[in-house]
Amino acid sequence: MKIRLVLPFLVIFAILLSCKKEIAKVPNRLIEKEKMVNIMYDMAVLDAMRNQNPSLLDSFKNNSNAYIYKKHKIDSVQFAQSNIYYAADFKAYKKLYEQVKIRLEKEKILTETIIKAEKKKADLLVKKNKKLKLKKEADSIKKAKRETAKQKMKKEMDSLKKIVAEEKKRRVQIKN
Fold first, then answer.
1. Contact (CB, 8 A) for 92 and 23
2. DSSP label at 176?
3. Is the pLDDT assigned to residue 117 strictly greater than 90?
């Protein structure tokens, strides 16, 4: 009877001890969690670039991940071992990815804000140029009207001068 009472506790204890056992051992050169998040972020951005515009990454002739390894001063083996270690604990690995996701979302919002501001700036510039063009056109029309009025006045003055000159001639002829 005592065995029946003790046996379930022994089974539960054995299960708990086996759950604590590490699936992956700690690598010699484990990448810190914060640095791992940065690397995973860079890789996510690189993958997005690769999927969006593959020709954009042609400048990385061999392997574009090599750029990330060089940037973070690690090698592919170190990354793979650290990745396996962190992936062994699903909850912790999920937290790493959530940090990456939050950072990507922040960058997306920031980028969208910058794009909206640049678009607004460009739209304002277009409006300003349009107003300036309309003003120049209006000024050109005013100038043309003034020139036309000046020419008309000059013709009228010339006509009046001609009439006055003819009248003077006629008066001189009448006097003679």
1. no
2. -
3. yes
